[in-house]
C-alpha cells in the first residue's frame, strides 16, 4: 500500500464537511511531491542495500519531483548527501526543510543502476484536496479490483462497472460516517432523477465485509456498494475525507472531485454538465 504523500504528515480517514475539510492548516514544511512504498527484501537484495529505501509509486503534477525528473519506480537512496534509511526517514528529512530549499536527491532506476543525482527546489505542501483534484482531473482512474457487497463478496473490475454508463458518481464513504449518511438522500434523489439520462452511482468503502453487509441489508441503497478490500482505491486516489464524490465518465476519466456533505447544488451542476443537459437546476436542500 502507498505509504505516504511526502507531505510531511499523514492523512487519516476523516468525516468532515467541505468547509472544514478545506481549511487544513498550511505548515511551512518542505514538499517533494511523490507517493512512496518501502522496498521489499527482494528489491533490497537487487539494489545491494540492507534497508527498506522508499520507491516512488506516484509523481504529482507540477510538483518539485516532476520538475526535477523523478520517475515512478525510482528508489530514493540519498537526500542532501546522506543515505536514506527508510520511507519515514525521507519524510522526516524533507519535512525538516523549508519550502524553497534547494536539495540534491540520489535515485536508482533501471537505466541508472549506479545512481542519478537530481537537483530540485522543495515546494510548499498543498492542501490535500487541491492536490487530489490537480492530480486526477481529466486523468483516467486505474482499473482496480473491488468487491461487490452481497450475501458474498464478488470481485468486479472498476471499468466494467463504469463502461455501461455515461457518468458515474463514485461515493467514497463509510457506514459510520455521519456526513455520508446526511449526503445519501440527495444522491439517491439525483440518481432517480437522472438515471435515464445515463447517471450511475456506486459507493466504495474501505471497511470490512461485515459492516458493509449490514449496511446494505438495513438501508438497501439503490446502487451497488463495493468493498475496497485491497485498499488500492483509497491509496491510489488518496481519498481520506468522507464522503468524497468522484465524477467519472464511461472510460474512467475523472471530470470532477467534490468533498464532504452539503454539496447538493454543485453536485447537480456537475451531473447536468457531464450528461450534456442544458441549463442548471437548483435542487432543494
Secondary-structure blueprint:
Elements: E1 14-15, H1 18-21, E2 30-31, E3 34-38, H2 41-47, E4 54-59, H3 64-68, E5 75-79, E6 82-83, H4 87-95, E7 102-109, E8 112-121, E9 123-124, H5 128-136, E10 145-148, E11 154-157, H6 158-162, E12 167-172, H7 178-194, E13 199-205, H8 209-219, E14 225-227, H9 232-237, E15 241-242, E16 244-249, E17 254-259, H10 264-274
Overview of this structure, please?
This protein has two domains: 27-124, PDZ domain (Pdz3 Domain), CATH 2.30.42.10; 128-274, Glutaredoxin. Strand 7 (102-109) and strand 8 (112-121) form a beta hairpin. It is α+β, with helices and mostly antiparallel strands and 285 residues long. It has helices spanning 18-21, 41-47, 64-68, 87-95, 128-136, 158-162, 178-194, 209-219, 232-237, 264-274, and strands at 14-15, 30-31, 34-38, 54-59, 75-79, 82-83, 102-109, 112-121, 123-124, 145-148, 154-157, 167-172, 199-205, 225-227, 241-242, 244-249, 254-259. It has a seven-stranded mixed sheet, sandwiched between helices. A four-stranded antiparallel sheet has the order 6-5-7-8. The model is unreliable at 7-11 and 18-26 (pLDDT under 50).
